[in-house]
Amino acid sequence: MKTYLDCIPCFMKQALRAGRISGMDESGVKQLLDEVGCMIRDLPLESTPPVTGDLIYGKIRQMTGVNDPYNEIKKETIREALELYPELKNIVRKSDNRMLTAAKIAIAGNVIDLGVGNDFNITRDVHAILNQEFAILHFEEFLESLNKAESVLYLGDNAGESVFDKLLIEELGKPVTYVVRDIPVINDVTMEDAIDSGLDTVAEIISSGSSAPAIIPGLCSDEFLDRFESAEMIISKGQGNYEGLSNVERPIFVLLKAKCQVIANDLGVDTGDIILATPRELNRHQ
Amino acid sequence: MKTYLDCIPCFMKQALRAGRISGMDESGVKQLLDEVGCMIRDLPLESTPPVTGDLIYGKIRQMTGVNDPYNEIKKETIREALELYPELKNIVRKSDNRMLTAAKIAIAGNVIDLGVGNDFNITRDVHAILNQEFAILHFEEFLESLNKAESVLYLGDNAGESVFDKLLIEELGKPVTYVVRDIPVINDVTMEDAIDSGLDTVAEIISSGSSAPAIIPGLCSDEFLDRFESAEMIISKGQGNYEGLSNVERPIFVLLKAKCQVIANDLGVDTGDIILATPRELNRHQ
Predict the structure, then answer these.
(1) What is the ipTM of this complex?
(2) In Å, how far is B47's CA from the nearest CA of chain A?
(3) Distance between A31 CA and the closest CA of chain B, angstroms
(4) 3-state helix, strand, coil in chain A (%, to 5)
(5) Distance from CA of B42 to the nearest CA of A (A)
(6) Does the pLDDT of residue B283 top 70, yes or no?
(7) Topology of domain B71-285, per CATH?
(8) What is the pLDDT of residues B124-156, one digit of tens each?
(9) Do A148 and A193 touch, CB atoms closer than 8 A?
């Protein structure tokens, strides 16, 4: 997905929030906004939003010297999600459609996003999403693809959400490779976070090889790209990964909650909607 | 009120919206955002937000050559407000407290703000505000000041809202001077808009002498400042005027709806709250 002009004020907002969370004082944050403001000129709109995000969060790391400002927040959300895990596992067990319920829960975890900056309350939000209908649901295609695939490549998004991903992975019934960011960026899931979430007990965990807050094939390692190119089924979590992959021709299923108007418009849904969709079907229908 | 860092992403959003409304194509709007992005570096945070707004909207005028992009929208909102006028006049007539009801209606008109960019629906919003309690209400002080004053200086805010101001002016029972922006900026009320709203039948209309979307004493004409300095009672409508005047020692009463988090925090209220307050009392209580 290209960067829309509407993303630009949002980049400024993200820089503001990230600067503050990194512990910069107000004059430091102002300098950061000065720098990011001047970076706008060099932003090619053909790039996807997370490519720009990569530049901005790189600038923040450089200016603050803080590599993982969201570290404590990530640990806290993983802890909260792990506390919810037994209750959610029970909901999946009792469900008439375990796979669909687990998919919904995995999407519910996607509210834990400190990039977009919406308020969230994991417990409240997960129960709300369990009662929400999908705005787009390519579930038959999902099951068919899963049935044919020998293994699944699962692209993680945020730390904490990773615990909810575990519930879906446990239902897939196929060997899963879980992909994490190479270094900390926003509250995105890293190797350490994935292990803290218990994902090492249900999946092989690999790095994308990139610091971008999304899977941008051009920025990933060759090792990841080999896996990506040969994957029979890819589950892509969240907005960032969708932004990076919406035009990539691979057997991808996108699981996300549309948290901003730009993504909602791009998908033809409303803000707050949840989708389980394959971009190939989306393109065919649009 | 100083410019908060939180205002900076909002400036970018305002530039985006104003560029589009001015009829710029997307590449023109991108150039505008490039320029505004680089202006951030030169923004002194000690300035009030509307001083920065003045610079940004000046840049938009310069880049587009369009002096009044909001002209048609302003005419439409004035027309809509005039249609509501008889019904609202009736509500004031039947009210137990005509002055307070008229003040509420004047504040309800303050939702017509194309700077902040919230959605509004005049008919729906005015009825909602009629049922809303004030978060801050210095009504006794207001009546006392009005009682003592020989005349009132009324600082207008937006076009359309100006029709609602007429209802309050009709209740004041004192000669009123209504102040408009010197040239069109956002959808703020100008001389022409004030006349279209029927204000010339109930008040003398004068210009602030400034293009800023607020009363910033340092930017106003000497003619206006003479009136401002000698005014016995000043009614200031809306966020912009509050931002410009919150630290000015004059007998000011602020009537506004808090439409953004920054203003709400500055006033110690919640977003969506309505207030009729004298900053002197606010300072004493804080």
Answers:
(1) 0.83
(2) 14
(3) 8
(4) 55, 10, 35
(5) 8
(6) no
(7) Rossmann fold (3.40.50)
(8) 888 899 999 999 999 999 999 999 999 999 999
(9) no
CB pairs under 8 A between A and B: 55
Q: Which residue of B has its CA nearest to A17?
A: B6
Of B282, B36, B228, B16, nearest to A3 by C-alpha is B16
In the sheet with A204-207, reading across from the earlier edge strand, the strands are A136-137, A274-277, A252-257, A234-237, A152-155, A176-180, A204-207
CB contact under 8 A, A33 and B6: no
Picking from B147, B108, B153, the residue whose alpha carbon sits closest to that of residue B253 is B153
Q: Give the C-alpha separation, B240 to B160, whole Å.
A: 16
**Under an 8 A CB cutoff, do B5 and A30 touch?**
yes
pTM of the model as a whole: 0.86
* A245 contacts: CB under 8 Å, gap ≥ 6: A155, A214, A215, A217, A236, A252, A254, A279
For residue A252, give the H/E element and its range: strand A252-257
Numbered residues of chain B with Cβ closer than 8 Å to any chain A Cβ: 5-6, 8-10, 12-13, 16, 26, 29-30, 33-34, 36-41, 45
Residue B271 makes CB contacts below 8 A (sequence gap 6+) with B258, B259, B260, B261, B264
Q: How many CB atoms lie within 10 A of CB B72?
A: 10
Helix (H, G, I), strand (E, B), or coil: what is residue B201?
Answer: helix
Report the alpha-carbon distance of residue A43 to residue A49 in Å, rounded: 10
* pLDDT tens digits, A43-69: 888 888 998 888 888 888 898 888 898
Residue B170 three-state SS: helix
Closest partner CB to A37 (pick from B16, B29, B40)? B40
**Confidence at residue B116, expressed as pLDDT on a 0 to 100 scale:** 66
**Do B30 and A6 make contact, defined as CB atoms within 8 angstroms?**
no
Q: Are B248 and B231 in contact (CB under 8 A)?
A: no
Neighboring chain B residues of A39 at a CB cutoff of 8 Å: 37
CA distance B161 to chain A (A): 28
Q: Is the pLDDT of residue A116 over 80?
A: no
CATH architecture of A72-285: 3-Layer(aba) Sandwich (3.40)
Q: Could you state, in order of their start, the residue ranges of all structural domains in chain B?
A: 7-64, 71-285
pLDDT tops 70 at residue B199: yes
